[in-house]
User: What shape does this take?
Amino acid sequence: MRRLPTNDRADDLLESRRSSAMHALDRNRLEVALTRLGETLAFRNQAVSVLVIGGSGLLLLGTVTRATYDVDIVAVVDGSKLSRAQPLPLGLANAARDVAQAFGLDPNWLNPGPKRLLDFGLPEGCLKRSELRRYGSLEVHVASRFDQIHFKLYAAVDQGPRSKHAADRRTLGPSRSDLIAAARWCRTHDPSIGFRGSLGDALTAFSIEVGDDEL
Amino acid sequence: MTNSNHELRQAIADYAWNAWACLGVAGWRRRGFAACIDIDALVLLTGRLGDGDARLRDESLDWCASNLEYVARSRLVHLLKDGGAPGSWGAYAATLQHATKQSWPGSSQPFGWHPSGKSRLPQHADGATLALRARALFGATARAEAIRILMLDASENAVDAREVAVEASYTKRSVAQALASLEVAGLVRSTSVGNSHPYQLRRRAELEALLAPMPTLRTSQRAFCRVAWSVLSAAESAASATVRRVEGARLVRELASDLALACPQSRADDGRSPSLDDLLAWTVDACGTVTGRRIGA
Assistant: This one.
């Protein structure tokens, strides 16, 4: 039989929910937070350019309305060159932390996304396809819908069909060719047979059957 | 500049004038100074303030040039690394360098200045000038700083050598050597445990009798000068409401340990992070507490 939480646990859960609600970023709060971050960086004579993926990227594109809790930065952009975002550049990390402290955001609202995405390679042309937003001296390259399908498929295979990534991927409304392109890219990150099987399952959830020759 | 920024600059200048008057600078009707003046931190603060009060700047230069043996230039090297904006320090240091023919850290281009020759050392001992008397006895050295810091520790508990080094603003090695010498002299005792090296004053009563009187307020004026300058430079450069809030958060993050040393009650009562305007109001108030001037009273 499931045990009822004690009062302490109930308080913790309540506090955790309150805290989550307080830190949730809908599109408006996200835009405001990035504007404040850009203004802070400009005041500190710092300029930063980043590539953003994940839920916050989808919010900025207007593809989803689901609130997010953080902004995943997959790379720091310098012209056409991408470099690891882990760790975040010190000036950016400090500014993000101060904005969080001043305006009650989650202390980790801006964080480096999975470093292996960059290590194993982003989809070809990802930066060129991204949508550029400027907030003061902060440049945010938002990964395109096409590239987000790649990342979401990869994350959904990793975390299962019930994850938020699978739901986001459905919202993105990928075509068969989008999914096959995404699946091919996923295979470059993990060529194992086990992953191929999970990838097939994920595609089947979209009523797409693909042969090995297509991947 | 907003009115509150102006008020803060005035309060800090008033703080500096009162401290300098206690040290013997001419031309200011002193009201007193409740804390122990940190001479080098005061020199740095005054130099950074620049010519907003030209007479304060010029008379403090006169005192420094006349009493070079009481200013620890090697300590200024460490104090300058506090992350604060340089302000007008470079020109102030260069002017001293020109006048004293000695090297001053961080100097840039001097300005035209002529010594007034009016500065005198204080004729009456008071709590504010404890550091001056410690330097008269031990020289402007890490040893004098260590004695001052341990004497000012109101808790009379052992103080870790690392904490002494931070407050003394000398290298850890210099402070360790100074404390070791003072232990040989029988003035401090060490109770090392593992990596911790706490030191406690011995013969406190004799030392207090020798260097008396003690100041009524024992908070760190090194920490206060750093906080005051950081808040002023942030307040004068941050214009928008957003930046003022964020800079407040930055200052709380960067100055956390010095805020606690300068004023143990400086945290906002409701647990929220103090804004820049909270810090500004607190600094104005703290200047008044030290100098006996109640702002707005």
In short: Chain A has two domains: 7-143, 147-214. Residues 7-143 of chain A form one domain. The first strand of chain A starts at residue 48 and ends at 53. The CA atoms of residues 37 and 95 of chain A lie 7 Å apart.
